[in-house]
From TrEMBL:
Pfam families: LacI, Peripla_BP_3
Lineage, broadest ranks: Bacteria, Bacillati, Actinomycetota, Actinomycetes, Micrococcales
Xref: PROSITE patterns: HTH_LACI_2
Annotated SUPFAM superfamilies: lambda repressor-like DNA-binding domains, Periplasmic binding protein-like I
Protein name: LacI family DNA-binding transcriptional regulator
Amino acid sequence: MTGVSPGPTIASIARELGLSVPTVSKVLNGRADVAPATRDRVEAALEKHQYRRRRPAAAAPGSGLIDLVFHRLGSAWSMEIIRGVEDAAAELRSSVILSELGGEHRPPARWLDTTISRPPLGVLLVAANLSDAQHQQLDRRGIPYVVIDTDGEPPADVASVGSDNWNGGLQATRHLLALGHRRIAMITGPSNMLCSRARVDGFRSAHEEAGAVVDPALVREGNFYVEAGFEQGLELLSLPDRPTAVFAGSDMQALGVLRAAHQIGLRVPEDLSVVGYDDLPLASWVGPPLTTVRQPLREMGAAATQILLDIARGRSPKVRRLNLSTELVVRESTAPPA
């Protein structure tokens, strides 16, 4: 009777490489006291043998941390996601630590080393993703991760949570077209972010649906922050044939457009209609209250946390790809063109 050959172990990989078991273990645990060349040899052997550390069938409730990683912090948008993650984590008796990538969409090597050395229950990546090599390194160590508002299409085996950005862009633009606007500008987010591209596609689809033409000169790239809305808004509103409406792509950029309009002497909504995106708490408090697209940020954070902890605790999540709906919220910043 032929027995089933056991899978690779730390000991068998150490023997193959002529290294000690503690050395291989140090690489697995992200310890810094291993020579780079040795570390590369061990990582290559781990990948060759498809080594995967076994995660306990069920991590005890209240044990471990969730590493919440943002490509950039510092806006009301990120605070809404943090609140959703923290609420869900507290309910499930877990804690959250924050990391920030300085605007990059791929974590640097030092982040990976730190994460491996203090292995969390799992990782939540916001508007960021891992390279294939980073994905494999976390997978080998039994550290799951979930992507929120991904910057691109994640691997098939990675869970993700987002919202219907295409429909959000469509609803915002349909609203402006229904009011009678035809010179509609859009300030997008970064072109390397999937959510931004989807909103632009919705913007274009609404024009096509209405038989209206998009003027390429009225579509400007921003970064979802106030400064970009102000700078691009000033340029757009200073054009000889300026737009009568601006879909600002985010509430923060909409604030910048409102400031630009005020500086130029345009009244909102009498001279200019403005639509934001996200429906942050401040959207209903600005003057005038902002028409925007509600993106369920807190719900996205909470849902991603639930999925991550299900995976970490050995349970199969109900869904691995979740796309929450968006909703147009009409307030006082939009009106028919003068």
